[in-house]
Write a structure and sequence with these properties.
Strand 14, helix 21 and strand 15 form a beta-alpha-beta unit. The two termini are about 55 Å apart. The protein is an alpha/beta fold. Helix 2 packs antiparallel against helix 4. The chain has a six-stranded mixed beta sheet with strand order 9-10-11-14-15-19, with helices on both faces. Helix content is about 45%, strand content about 15%. The longest helix is centred in the N-terminal third of the chain and has 26 residues. The chain contains 23 helices and 19 strands.
């Protein structure tokens, strides 16, 4: 059933073309002997008919290819096109009967396999691909959002009003079409996707210039400072020396009291947050970072409110003098509250990224030589392993998608852990910050080695007519091999998908604790939806399959409350001094890893 869901959710057009071409290949192979034994004109007609698959593929290329991006077309349909071209060569090889007898069955088999490959290729990651590249900006955006209404598997779980979201961002898409602003289309699509609060819903953008233009429009303006909520106060951070903010008395650790005339706590709460590229489904994580976005907001004088209005306004800005001013209230060095007006000094992108990203991009700096799944002893009793995705070997990983086991990877992991134990390992830090996911079987195999008991992890299922159908329960088999090892899982909001699942299943083990400034992304449903928009400028990816908890809730993914589903056992306190140390040592050390190492030392004293 799972396999059928994957295969038959693909576009019906490619099915029609592939099946039609396959019948031609088989029919031509069977009919050759009869035509060759008949009159001369029979074999002549047969040779002409060898061109028929090529004509079919030419029609597909002219009317159904992915317009505007030859690379994507080649990736999905290249082998299908190649098969039709090679089959056409049989018209020539038939002139040489001995050679032709060898080539005819071989080429026919190759062509049929190429057709099967064309259907199976998107099965795991883009099984529900829809091509709207021939439509204009507005029509392709509408078509893609309607695809999500039909196929997005978390629509009801998250209670997303997709038509309302579409209406919110349509004015920006219309503006992008009227001005042929590809970056504005990308910005609107990124913002639309963010509002699903799902790490698997994202805009896929193919041109670096369009992507940069899009995130720049979303990043607002730079007023010479950023802000973070630390120790219950909104502090200025990342203040640029010699900026107007600096000259007017704002320093790092200055307490900000208002923004654009609104009391600061209220202004932060009202801020619509968009992180350019990664969704933050857990509301507490987004709330932690909302002041960073507020610091890029100027005073609005006209036009619609919210992100959609912001990007329309920002798209018309051609020089910094056109950017809106910001009104900032703060406590000065004498303890007095002051209010100043600041002019923007450029795009807010760099300051946003310097403030936001440095909190979560300290990973692997301390041991850059380690490859994925590799580990080393970092002191007399503690080992450190990096785990930046859940992929090991493509063939065995794909097979594990159906079997839920990856014995080849497990064998390698057991050997590595045995070697570390011989070196004195009693404790271990597994670093999954930024883990981009992959195949959950690797997490199942790992958890089994640390678990003392068997347990059910999740249930694969489907929904038919709005009713759940549970198809396959996935188990972790506890082997206790390394259950005596004390483990810290180091996480961040960029640990997503199969990375989320790895953290979940391993966190069930009593000897494992989850640690981080903020929890994982909490997005784990299987992808498959992919709607390609106008001229393949961008597209939208989204989940189309179903994973359930044992109680029937969705596996890991947050619902409309956006409450964390994989809570931290140990939350690293986000104090002002800790943040300043993070910023100051970004290039030279890993403060978060050091915190984990110190925690393990202190716990055993």
């Amino acid at each position: 059933m799972l396999l059928i869901n994957r295969i038959f959710s693909n576009s019906p057009f490619i099915w029609i073309f592939v099946i039609f071409s396959s019948f031609i290949y088989i029919g031509m192979c069977i009919s050759y002997k009869k035509c060759a034994a008949g009159k001369f004109h029979s074999i002549k007609i047969w040779r002409v008919l060898c061109l028929l698959p090529l004509i079919v593929c030419l029609n597909h290329f002219l009317f159904f290819r992915i317009k505007g991006n030859f690379w994507i077309t080649r990736y999905y349909y290249g082998l299908y096109y190649l098969a039709s071209f090679i089959f056409a060569l049989l018209a020539i090889t038939s002139l040489f009967r001995r050679v032709h007898k060898i080539f005819l069955p071989l080429i026919t088999i190759f062509c049929i396999l190429a057709n099967i490959h064309t259907l199976v290729l998107p099965m795991v990651w883009e099984s529900a691909m829809r091509n709207h590249s021939r439509e204009n900006f507005v029509d392709s955006f509408v078509s893609s959002t309607k695809d999500m209404e039909k196929y997005y598997s978390l629509k009801d779980w998250k209670k997303i009003d997709i038509p309302a979201l579409r209406d919110e961002f349509l004015p920006a898409v219309q503006k992008a079409q009227d001005t042929n602003d590809k970056g504005l289309l990308c910005a609107a699509t990124i913002a639309f996707c963010y509002n699903f609060y799902d790490g698997h819903v994202a805009a896929r953008i193919y041109n670096d210039d369009d992507w940069f233009r899009g995130i720049t429009l979303l990043a607002g303006h730079d007023y010479g400072l950023s802000m973070l909520n630390l120790e219950g106060k909104i502090f200025a951070v990342n203040v640029e020396e010699n900026s107007e903010a600096w000259r007017q008395g704002i320093r790092n650790k200055t307490v900000i009291t208002s923004w654009n005339g609104v009391q600061i706590d209220k202004a932060v709460a009202q801020t619509e947050f968009i992180q350019m590229g990664t969704q933050l489904p857990v509301k507490s994580t987004e709330d932690m970072l909302r002041p960073v976005m507020l610091a890029t907001k100027g005073m609005r004088t006209e036009g619609p409110e919210g992100i959609a209005g912001d990007i329309i306004e920002n798209a018309s800005i051609t020089e910094d003098s056109q950017r809106p001013h910001a009104l900032v209230g703060f406590i000065d060095e004498n303890g007095n509250e002051r209010q100043i007006e600041l002019a923007a000094i450029g795009s807010g992108l760099n300051r946003f990224e310097e403030t936001f990203c440095l909190l979560f991009f300290h990973r692997y700096n301390a041991h850059p030589e380690l490859k994925n799944f590799e580990a080393k002893m970092i002191n007399e009793d503690t080992a450190y392993m990096v785990r930046y995705n859940e992929t090991s070997n493509l063939f065995f990983d794909v097979l594990s998608y159906f079997t839920n086991h990856q014995p080849r990877y497990k064998k390698q992991l057991v050997k590595e852990l045995d070697d570390l134990r011989k070196e004195g390992m009693k404790k271990m830090i597994i670093d999954v910050r930024g883990n981009t996911g992959g195949y959950w079987a690797l997490g199942i195999e790992t958890a089994g080695l640390f678990s003392t008991e068997d347990y059910a992890m999740a249930v694969r299922g489907t929904e038919v007519g709005g009713k759940k159908r549970m198809l396959q329960t996935i188990y972790v088999n506890g082997e206790e091999t390394f259950s005596d090892i004390e483990v810290i899982l180091l996480v961040d909001p960029y640990c997503v998908s199969a990375g989320d699942s790895f953290v979940r299943v391993l966190s069930y083990c009593p000897n494992v604790k989850v640690m981080g400034i903020a929890p994982t992304n909490c997005s784990c449903q299987e992808n498959g939806g992919f709607s390609i928009m106008s001229n393949a400028i961008c597209g939208i990816v989204y989940p189309v399959n179903w994973l359930y908890e044992l109680n029937g809730d969705r596996y890991i993914d947050t619902d409309e409350t956006r409450e964390c589903t994989i809570p931290l056992d140990i939350q690293i306190p986000l104090t002002y001094d800790f943040v300043q140390e993070l910023y100051a040592s970004f290039e030279t050390s890993d403060v978060i890893l050091d915190y984990a190492i110190d925690y393990l030392k202190q716990e055993n004293q």
